[in-house]
Design goal:
With about 300 residues, the protein is of the alpha/beta class. The chain is about 30% helix and about 25% strand. The chain is globular and about 55 Å long.
């Protein structure tokens, strides 16, 4: 990049309260374990990952007037992310995720993200975009249908604005389908891809063809241990993940892959190289309990 690409990340910023115990879960008894307070959210993850990779980033989201909101805002400021569009809600508290994990069992999660309802394409956001402060948008599918419609209407009026759309979760992945032809890059995992298709998704050309039939032209589908499938202009790539001997936590790996991939896109790299950057970013994130790896940098990707 001759000059840093300017990216506005739009979506959820939250605090993840991660509890883990190696003791058996019997009758929901009290158990010894660890508890970590980790900044999270798709909006935050994309903004900070891309900042680490040399982009000029801003965040559009809302926090509550509470200690968790203060914690998140200070984190953005310490990372150098522009917070002029980070609002404070007077109706809702900061988004929270409570995650409980036990050895050998799937993690369970309770969450509240009502504050995301506050995000709209307001006059201040429109002015931010009109002033050329963003070359690209990273949109979280957690946005309300009304907010998504506003952003894609703006995109229709400004076709040069690059839009990356994250499926976010299986239960809301289909919200973006009506905008498929307006999305420059779409990303989802296997469960989200299955929700979009209405049938099981697999890393094969038939699955890619079904996505293209829905209007998606450039997309990423991650398949966990099976790797990742990327399709662009009808051409399909399948790559295995990089070995991760010290896997700690999977949360945030998808956002990291997308960020590394976007680094390649905006540096006009071939798709195969973009995928390599994404795999590096995902691997680094899998080895930390944080949702963003502190090791990410342009030099890491170029010299790995």
């Amino acid at each position: 990049m001759n000059s840093p690409v300017k990216v506005l990340s739009v979506g959820n910023v939250s605090v993840d309260i991660k509890a883990f115990s190696a003791e058996a879960d019997e009758a929901e008894a009290y158990r010894d374990g660890t508890i970590d307070l980790v900044p999270g959210g798709v909006g935050r993850g994309m903004a900070i990952n891309l900042k680490h990779l040399g982009f000029e980033t801003a965040i559009l989201g809302f926090i509550g007037r509470d200690i968790f909101g203060d914690f998140l805002k200070k984190g953005f400021e310490s990372e150098g992310v522009n917070t002029e569009l980070l609002g404070i809600s007077e109706r809702y508290h900061t988004a929270l995720f409570s995650v409980m994990a036990t050895t050998g069992k799937p993690a369970s999660c309770v969450y509240n993200t009502n504050v995301v309802k506050e995000i709209t394409l307001s006059d201040s956001v429109r002015q931010f975009l009109d002033d050329g402060k963003a070359d690209a948008l990273c949109l979280d599918s957690n946005l309300t249908p009304e907010a998504l419609a506003q952003f894609y209407e703006y995109k229709a009026q400004h076709p040069d604005l690059y839009v990356f759309q994250n499926a976010t979760s299986p239960d809301i992945a289909r919200k973006s389908m009506q905008y498929a032809k307006d999305i420059n890059l779409f990303a989802c995992n296997q469960m989200e891809a299955s929700a979009v298709l209405g049938e099981p998704a697999f890393p094969d050309p038939a699955c890619a063809a079904k996505f293209r039939a829905l209007g998606f032209d450039h997309f990423i589908i991650t398949f966990g241990e099976q790797g990742v499938m990327v399709c662009k202009d009808g051409e399909v790539w399948n790559e295995k993940p990089f070995a991760t001997p010290d896997l700690v936590d999977t949360i945030g790996a998808g956002d990291a892959f997308a960020s590394g991939y976007l680094y390649g896109v905006f540096n006009k790299k071939p798709v195969k190289e973009c995928i390599r950057y994404g795999l590096i970013s995902a691997k680094e994130t899998l080895m930390t309990r944080q949702t963003v790896s502190e090791t990410l940098s342009p030099s890491l990707l170029e010299n790995y």
